[in-house]
Amino acid sequence: xxxxxxxxxxxxxxxxxxxxxxxxxxxxxxxxxxxxxxxxxxxxxxxxxxxxxxxxxxxxxxxxxxxxxxxxxxxxxxxxxxxxxxxxxxxxxxxxxxxxxxxxxxxxxxxxxxxxxxxxxxxxxxxxxxxxxxxxxxxxxxxxxxxxxxxxxxxxxxxxxxxxxxxxxxxxxxxxxxxxxxxxxxxxxxxxxxxxxxxxxxxxxxxxxxxxxxxxxxxxxxxxxxxxxxxxxxxxxxxxxxxxxxxxxxxxxxxxxxxxxxxxxxxxxxxxxxxxxxxxxxxxxxxxxxxxxxxxxxxxxxxxxxxxxxxxxxxxxxxxxxxxxxxxxxxxxxxxxxxxxxxxxxxxxxxxxxxxxxxxxxxxxxxxxxxxxxxxxxxxxxxxxxxxxxxxxxxxxxxxxxxxxxxxxxxxxxxxxxxxxxxx
Length: 424
Hints:
Layout: H1 3-37, H2 43-55, H3 69-77, H4 84-103, H5 114-120, H6 123-129, H7 139-155, H8 159-167, H9 171-184, H10 187-195, H11 203-227, H12 234-248, H13 252-255, H14 258-273, H15 278-289, H16 293-303, H17 307-320, H18 323-331, H19 338-365, H20 372-382, H21 384-394, H22 404-423
């Protein structure tokens, strides 16, 4: 390359490199802002993260002027959490720790990460040297840094830690699952729309857009790492799941019924009332309520039925058994230690699994020519005795106490109903 060619290339890259640096700073600042909004609710998790980093010799809490467990306990009682500077320190250490874990995994050598590598470079370099980038001496480091930055900035400081704690998955598989769910649900478009609201809506409204997508990431990533073999096939899972989710997600308002449909509409209205544009509020609400689409697609594949048909029966059953109310009860359970956290997760996924199993039973035992409501009613008539026993034992879902013991009993009755229904 001649000197004039080099100067031309550098001039072409200058503005884009500046934009890329500012983009990274922006996303990290957004991550810290979002973290502050959950400083108290996630304080027990942050305490466990600090302790874990210390035990692995990756953090000296006293050296970094981070609060002790005793001080954190006092803050919790006062409704407080980590401060913004403390979150900045924790964020940095989390990224350093994750980069080490990812570099030690084969993830950075997988074919799908080639796009991560090329996207790191400005356009003029991609245009001229894309074919040579795979041989870059820092290829693995670039890929690991890029992935970790995105996952932590988008998912949150404690995102990977919580997913690993609750599922037993490796950091690398959590990151693989993140990439799958991100692309399957089209989250980058929602994030871009949320970022476009800078200085247009209150900060609280903008933060809600990002936190709602995080709730999907939390649930869907755990679902993926617990239902797939390790290492997760990123490209294969995206190809498998994205067509179905892309088709069903816009149809959620029509597929859902009763109180759950109203809850979806009310959530969108609530976001819009806080200043989020109506179309974005609707999209964010669909994403939040769209987690069940993963089980719908799995059930459709298992019983060889059209996903749209499965979705209609699934949501009728979800309404009949008050699944949304039960999920709300589960979300309110404490997570002050690891065991409480694991109990919450187990209840949530057992409930989703039971709903999927009931859906399969209805699909296989009733005629597809009938309406979803009629199919569920016919199934209920055949299983009337079992349903009556379960209903008597469960009582009113809305009035049931939202503690672990009560919810465990409720879920056991639903699982028992699944078994008796399958035996008919």
